[in-house]
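To the wet lab folks,

You asked to see what we're planning to order before we commit. Fair enough. Below is the target structure as tokens, and below that is the sequence we designed to fit it. If anything looks off to you, flag it before the synthesis order goes out.
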């Protein structure tokens, strides 16, 4: 299943952006259309992706589906540390809510 990444401007959080070519390193460059934004263009790299809420949701849902943290970090192109952090943050919430299935232990 392809991972859909919702791209937002990391500076102002608008989704009013468009692709604007790429950097010599092959990273996608985006242009922000928010007139109040201090940045006109930005690059989504792994670090920025990590801050996107959608990715965090993906991390959690992949873990619920039995993916290990290494798989998750590889598939989502985020750092292992980020995955572990997210799961730690979320694990408390999941214990409170239903869920008969215990999700994999984080190692
Ligand atoms: Zn912006």
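Sequence we intend to order:
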């Amino acid at each position: 299943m392809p991972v859909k990444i919702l791209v937002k401007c990391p500076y102002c959080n608008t989704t009013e952006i468009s692709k604007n070519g790429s950097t010599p390193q092959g990273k996608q460059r985006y242009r922000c259309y928010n007139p109040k934004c201090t940045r006109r263009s930005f690059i989504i790299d792994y670090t920025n992706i990590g801050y996107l809420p959608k990715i965090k949701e993906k991390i959690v849902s992949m873990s619920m589906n039995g993916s290990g943290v290494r798989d998750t970090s590889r598939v989502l192109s985020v750092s292992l540390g980020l995955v572990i952090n997210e799961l730690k943050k979320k694990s408390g919430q999941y214990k409170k809510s239903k869920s008969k299935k215990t999700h994999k232990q984080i190692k």
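Structural context that might help your review: The helical segments are 46-50, 53-64, 69-76, 80-96. Residues 1-44 form one domain.

Thanks,
Computational group
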